[in-house]
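User: quick one, fold this
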Amino acid sequence: MDFVSPVLDVASRICNCVGDRADHLRRLPQNLKSLRTETEKLNNVYKDVRERVEREENLEKKKRTHVVGGWIQRAEAMEKEVNELLDRCDEENQKKCFRTCCPRNCRASYKLAKMVREKMDAVAELQSEGRNFQEVAVPLPSPHVIERPLEEKPVVGLDSPFREVWRLLQDKQVGSIGIYGMRGVGKTTLLKKINNKFLQSSIKAFDIVIWVVVSRPTNLERVQETILDRLDIPDDRWKGREEERKAEEIRRVLTTKKFVLLLDDIWEPLDLLRVGIPPLGVGNQSKIVFTTRSADVCGGMAAQKSIKVECLEEKEALSLFQAKVGEDTLNSHPDIPKLAEMVAKECKGLPLAIIVIARAMASAKTPEEWERNLQKLRLYPKDVAGTENDLFSVLAFSYDSLPDEATKSCFLYCSLLPEDYQIPSEHIIQLWIGEGFLDEYDDIQEARNQGGKIIQMLKHVCLLEISTKLLLQKSEYLKMHDVIRDMALWLACEKGKKKNKFVVKDGVGLISAQEVQKWKDAQRIALWNKTSIEELREPPRFPNTETVIGRMTRFMFPSGFFTNMLVIRVLDFSNVEIRKLPAEIGNLATLQYLNLSGTRIEYLPIELKNLKKLRFFILDDLFSLASLPNQMVSSLSSLQLFSMKFFSSPSPVDEIMLLEELEQLDHINDISIRLTSIQSIQRLFESHKLRRSTTFLQLASCKGVNQVQLLSPCIKELILVMCDELEEVKIIHFEKQVVPSKFPNPQCCFNHLSSVLIIGCKKLLNLNWLIQAPKLQYLYIKRSKIIAKVIEDERSEGSEIESGLSVFSRLIYLVLLNLPNLESIYGHALLFPSLRWISVWNCPRLKKLPFDSSICMSKKLEKINGQQEWWDGLEWNDQTLMHNLTPIFSTPKKAIKC
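Assistant:
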């Protein structure tokens, strides 16, 4: 037995070992299946993590953490290793003994089986790790300085003060510098030039340069939040906190940095300690530079050095004046250069006055015109001592040069906007029409066109400015230089003699009843940004008031607020936090314009039906409104424009009733509306009046709608949102039969359509009907899963519409988001003469852009946005084209807004 026991023990161990190996081999098919499944799950987790990383890197200006970066590399390597292992297993499986399941090489098969088991565990571990990332990316540090664009290049006359300020910034004994001078002399331009000097790579003396526009009234909270954003302090450390907590956060960060704080347009001393700015000392070498009108503010801010910006010398002034008038005008007659010298002298060296008056003179091509205008200019006071009245008297020359009273009224009206405010041009034109400035035009569209011409004229003479246009910003945004705005207010108030003729309050908080009583002679009242009126003991009297604008305010209508408005024409309460309107508003017999957009109104008073002169009724973005009172809209007998965009209507019945009431109106010719049912769509298109009047149409969540037949040739903007069953859009020619062919007849049908937005229409296959829209400017398509081609190839050859315009010849913005099957925009290369922006996101199958270097492309193309992976995968017929377009490609820095 002594001999047998060891033998049995060895045999037992061999059996166990063989059994383990046999178990691995027996489980191998199931383990291979599990490995494939788990690897697929890992791949899904990998995609989710990768998308999170790319989204935060591209849209939120972050960089991936090292942990996440390492995990992505390991996941990619794991996928490669698993694929190689699976290939080896497939090869080994082919080597099994003939007609058996036994491997020829048990040892090799066992090793593979063991590796499969180990890979399963490794894949599962990677999955678990990838699912538990709380943070995948961290914010990138902001650049130490952000460039500020200079409106006037080259900058004239600021070399001397610039050199002085720059010298003081190098002086360790000087911490704070004040720059002062009269308005319009170039202080802000000088500060921008100083800011931009820090961009030079050779200048790294400071950790960060912070730019803040203070303006008036001084808003300490806004100043703090601008600094907090610039310092990249997380929102959860200061959002919604009190002033002291924000100051602590600013102080905590700035005490660790060597900073330059540039404060523009200070009107009164600013308490920097309350803001959170640590005291300047020899130790930290930080600097503060600010601009102000007044030398007194320099003293109040304890500036260690103050520098006055003077008006231009005569030679510099003439040089600037000549540059703005232009050589063409100066050379149009031998006498004009001498006359230009005489006009330039009247500007007294003030840069803003020089620019404004030079632009006003740019179109004067005869000596007689110059002599007449010079005589007019000399009628104003000549001694410019720095007072506002003297400055405004000089600038008022450009106002007096405007061609007619309507244009002058439109210009003065812009002074109701708060300082530094930007407004869409279409909004200000709509207000002008509501005020009656353009009443000579019966048709709204003609009035809009004239309003556009007035804007162009005011821009040309530098009385209005264009703000920077952002992606998908359809309308042109306007602003007024603060000096020009103050001049306009001065003129509107009869050169300062009637200070309350135009009342403009911006961010002033609660206005007392005593202050309101002073407005009894006001012609126009505008309340902006967190401005409200306290409860009044008796109804206010506004016998001469024609306009009341309350925007972005916390407005509570005092009792009897509308009682004594005898000549009111315009009420604009858009984006005001109000929930109800007093019934007395129905007594405003002269009211012609009422805008309640963006309010929280739940019910409209039936008394609104008494507004028989109302021409404009705007009810956009009213998500709290339950319904409209029956027969209210049809009672507005003068109504021309009705707008109810983005309104969450409770039922299709209400939509149909509204359409029927609109149809009863004799003067209606501009309708903007949102519809949600096939019955409402049919009711709209059945009516000739409604068809020709509808300019904005949104179809949202229309159940059961698989085809839309467009019959409204006057539509300017079309939005299709979440129409899940929509498969096709057909064009029906106005008053004609349906075009039966696959592609519409090339006769132009939608001459006015300028904007198309399509979101979440999952079954929509193509947009061939866009060939019928020759003036399309904005095309935005998102989450439409099966669209393969925007316009199909069969329509590509020689497609031109009857007007002679090629397809997409007016297109400005093209945005394509989350279109997984999109392969083509158009069948061949196009001119795109107007194109400025292209944005492509999550369109992996779009491998070609419809461009060709042999075709003269738009010189206006500024930006192509997209994922780097998509750009790198594009196919190019011409490498020259790729090299030409690469400099304007970038990944988006922030989310695209619709």
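User: anything notable?
Assistant: Residues 470 and 476 are 10 Å apart (CA to CA).
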